[in-house]
Amino acid sequence: MIKHRVTVPIQSKGNVGKSTEAIARLGWMSARGLSWRAFDLDSDNRTLSKAVPGVQVVELSEEPETDLIRLFRTVPESSLTLIDPRAHLSRILLRSLEAVRFFQYAGKEPDTRVTILFYPMDDLSVMDEIAEVVERVGNQADYVVVRNRARIPRIRMYEGSELEKELLSLGATTLEVPALLSDTRDALAALEIGLQRGISPVQALVDPEVKLDLIHRIILEDWLRLLFGRYERAAALLLAGEEAEKIARAAMTAADAEREPPRIRRGGKVNLQNLL
Predict the structure, then answer these.
(1) Residue 243 pLDDT greater than 70, yes or no
(2) Model pTM above 0.85
(3) Which residue among 25, 45, 60, 248 has the highest number of C-beta atoms inside a 10 angstrom radius?
């Protein structure tokens, strides 16, 4: 059984929603009572660490490989490790993982497994980079393809491509991040400015200092409920084995508790005699 799961996006292109997804996923894991360790490798922006308490900022030195290898050595300290790298760090990150034979180690020691997140888009350099990572890593890691239509509305280069087929053959799953209404996003941004700190979607609902409008609260609750359900369907690739089983059991219990709404026969309550 997998005892240690590491999730990391390996992609140079920025502004695709990597930190936004990581913030939401940490909120989901915390809401489900799962312990985690998270590292923010973007010391300039610190998007993740500003929004989520407990995230550790890693200041990369002039020799970033050494800093990353030190980080990798801490993986056995937690069942769930989330890494949020800055843009243009992918080659150094992949080279560091390969330098310590991390993928080979994970293959030989089945209690450790890496999940690589990809954000495909209609950009040839991005697609080539994803293809190169898949070629180099192969089945030594798991893969999650993230669709964020708010940032990347179409991915025609990926859909139906040989790359998509190869990832599916390796057991990849697709995680679609639902679009949050722009008015609600603007309301959250205004609150962040007012409080002078980052606010995660979960914090916006539970933090008494965050005075989110009732309508926006309802919209945000529905958005999180939808996204959390998608995380739970992808839990086998996002969590360690014991945690994934816990989520699966909870999801089954919730499904059993839901009552199917009664089916209403068309015209069943119409006075048919008056129509004859």
Answers:
(1) yes
(2) yes
(3) 25
